[in-house]
Amino acid sequence: MNIHEFQAKELFVEYNIPTTNGLVVRSLSEIPIALERFPEKSVIKAQIHAGGRGKGTIVGTDLPGVYLARSAEDTARYIQQTLGGVLVTNQTGSQGKRIYALYLCDVVEVEHEYYLSVQLDRSTAKPMVTVSRSGGVEIEANAKNLYSIFIDPESGIHAFQIRALARALGLERRIVPNFIELVSNLYRLFCDKDATLIEINPLGLTLEGGLIALDAKVILDDNALYRHPELEALRDAAEDDPLEDRASRFSMNYVAAEGDIACIVNGAGLAMATMDMIAFYGGKAANFLDLGSRADPIQVREALRIVQENPNTRGIFVNVFGGIAQCDVVAEGILEQCPQTMPVVVRLQGASAERGQQLLRERAPSVVLENDLERSVQMIVSKVRER
Amino acid sequence: MSILIDRHSKIVVCGITGQMGRFHTQKCLAYGSQIVAGVNPDKGRTFLECDTAKIPIFCTVAEAREATKANVALIFVPPAFATDSIFECIEAEIPLVIAITEGIPVHDMVRVKARLARSSTRLIGPNGPGVLCPGKCNASIMPTQVALPGRVGIVSKSGTLTYEAMWQLSQHGIGQSTCVGIGGDPITGTSHSDVIKLFNEDPETDAIVMIGEIGGLSEVQAAEYVSKHGSKPLVAFIAGSSAPKAKRMGHAGAMITGNSDTAAAKIAALRDYHIPVAELPSQIAQTLLTVYRP
To answer: How many C-beta atoms lie closer than 10 Å to residue B98's C-beta?
Structure first.
């Protein structure tokens, strides 16, 4: 689960990680309060779950998603022009993300900007702390400057490891104790809250020699939220695709995509591969939808409803390999919610496939049945193209 | 011989009394697997009646092992309790633990991995379909009706893509020695290369199918291993070419986080190591036939 920068900074405060103070503005009526707190300069940051905000643009303006306001008038004007607007960055896709909240922070003069992150490294199965001397930029473009340490989860992080990070950053000796405390606190936060990534980019070195988190990105493990009700409360429903939410309520996984062929598949791997095949034959999938291993009729019915609510859907492809899921049970679900207004191609294979096909043949003659995987994909692609 | 399990495997099922545990216990029994015990901390000294079988239930894995000599544990315990169950199996020195459970917190898996390194236990999964040796033993949730006994090993992160591959191979008359689902989580007990190593050493496996997806580098690390130590024909398929960045695609581990864990990057890396990669999931068997004749 992603959380907003201001929420991440609240966690930082809780763990004594120095960060900029700020104020969240959610409506124009809060402008006077904002100006009282920030009568002169402020940094204003759009709160969306995506990166690249500084280089992004708010639709209909030439304003970026991170803005240095130089006066009270400037602050008020930026809030008026951007709150409720749509921010497009290199990470949001062309549709962008709507800005429901702006975060105003103190302007901090810094001497240098570093990069600092903690994440789980999949290859070593260990937490990994990474630093770079050059922060404030996209870190992948800058991979050769990265330095990482790996942490033994049983003994935790040690000062000598953090000193190695400090050396890699070329930190002055007088700053190192602060840095050790900051990284230790960050690691504690990472473990306590079941985070999968915490990123401070940039970490500022102030003129007085202090360290301060100027930005904060925290990703939490969805699978661990059951043991953190306080973090579940940070979920921003406005950021989530409502169809994704509905699918998850029925124990299914839905991810929107940009095409027009809706996919309903059992199993994540096969669901991805189905989208790949549609693309291979020149079509474009409208979504990823994994029914899960069981695939009961209620799930299938709900899946059909969900994909039809996507206005881009112009055809539906159901691909089920029966195992735990029984194809005849899937067929019953299809019968309950089968659309008449668009082409539906169904491929059933594996457990009870014949019985499922027979059911559909008898009771849903408009459904196109094709058992061969490649031919079935070609069929839905050409049927949607014909329309 | 096959890898990991065979006719002699004695299986203890953790979470045997739950809906999923009970259902799959019946299926495994029907396939001829020796399910010798179940574990439920509150239902010791009772039995699970499965058709004609009567499976004793123990409060702890250690008791189950002591009484039945079980050497494989199959875990269906819900995610909030599954980590505890895995640790219990490691403590009881069960040599092979297969965790089907989906949704275990990834920090728990970090601790499990550290503990595994100091043990003699191998963990398969979590969040995978388990292990099936066609004709010999089923310690999985796989649809056994599409499997055919034979000499090709399958190792995969995905359940249904494994079934797809099994079915295709069977349709071509190519049987399988062992089908291993390593699971779709970011951190799993056993990697692609671990399983490929076992297949390399297995006299009853002649060729290998590796199925992967976006996220992590397990497939590329396996390819590197194969280029150095591989002795048997191996083909691959990687799912997720059309997946968007930074979106979790069903599996907790199926997420593109950079430039090296996309499907395109993995396919390119595999081909650099001269591993044939099927372009479509429907062409896994055909691709295998370009390098292997049964």
So the answer is: 32
Among A56-70, A77-91, A129-143, A201-215, the minimum mean pLDDT is found in A129-143
Which residues in A lie closer than 8 A to residue B254 (C-beta atoms)? Answer: 268-269, 272
Q: Do A275 and B242 touch (CB under 8 A)?
A: yes
Residue with tokens 């544990």: B73
**Helix H segments across B16-146?**
19-30, 61-68, 79-91, 106-117
CA atoms within 13 A on the CB side of B71: 10
Q: How far apart are CA B76 and CA A126, in angstroms?
A: 25
How many other CB atoms sit within 10 Å of the CB of residue B168?
A: 22
pLDDT band at B258 (very low <50, low <70, confident <90, very high): confident
Structural domain includes residue A6: no
Predicted confidence (pLDDT) per residue in B155-200, tens digit: 999 999 999 999 999 999 999 999 999 999 999 999 999 999 999 9
Distance CA(B139)–CA(A271), nearest Å, equals 24
What digits encode the pLDDT tens for the residues A232-277? 999 988 888 899 999 999 999 999 999 999 999 999 999 999 999 9
Question: Can you tell me the distance from the alpha carbon of B18 to that of B102, in angstroms, rounded to the nearest whole number?
Answer: 15
DSSP codes joined into one string, B154-217: EEES-HHHHHHHHHHHHHTT--EEEEEE--SSSS-SS-HHHHHHHHHH-TT--EEEEEEESSSS
- Of A105, A122, A156, which one is at a domain's C-terminal end? A105
Residue B179: CB atoms within 10 A of its CB come to 29
Round to whole Å and give the CA distance between B143 and A273: 19
Closest Cα of chain B to A282: distance in Å? 12
What's B52's DSSP letter? T
Q: Return phi, psi of residue A184, to 5°.
A: -60, -45
Q: How many CB pairs under 8 A join A and B?
A: 174
**pTM recorded for the entire structure:** 0.95
pLDDT tens-digit profile of A323-368?
A: 878 999 999 999 999 888 999 999 999 889 999 999 999 999 999 9
Of residues A147 and A140, which shows the higher confidence score? A147
pLDDT of residue A211: 97
User: How many structural domains are present in chain B?
Assistant: 2
Please give the residue range of the domain that contains residue A379. 241-386
Residues of B that are catalytic: 251
Arithmetic mean of pLDDT over chain A: 94
Residues B60 and B195 grouped into a single domain: no
Residues 31-70 in B contacting A (C-alpha not used; CB under 8 Å): none
Q: Are B86 and B149 in the same domain?
A: no
Please tell me whether residues A173 and A208 are part of one structural domain. Answer: yes
Query: Does residue B276 belong to any structural domain of this protein?
Result: yes
Among B124, B150, B176, the domain boundary falls at B124
How remote is the C-alpha of A83 from its chain's centroid? 21
- pLDDT (mean) for A215-223: 96
Q: Which domain holds residue B42?
A: 10-124
Q: Do A226 and B80 touch (CB under 8 A)?
A: yes
Name which of A360, A345, A361 is nearest A283 in CA terms.
A345
Domain membership of residue B135 (yes or no) is: no
Task: List pLDDT tens digits, range B261-287.
Answer: 999 999 999 999 999 999 999 999 999
**Residue B32 and residue B150 share a domain:** no
Same domain for B270 and B177, yes or no, is yes
Q: Are residues A335 and A220 in the same domain?
A: no
Instruction: State how far the Cα of A347 lies from the Cα of A38, in Å rounded to an integer.
Output: 61
A129 beta partners: A118, A149
Instruction: Work out whether strand B72-75 and strand B122-124 pair parallel, antiparallel, or are unpaired.
Output: unpaired
Q: Are residues B94 and B164 in the same domain?
A: no
ipTM for the predicted complex comes to 0.95
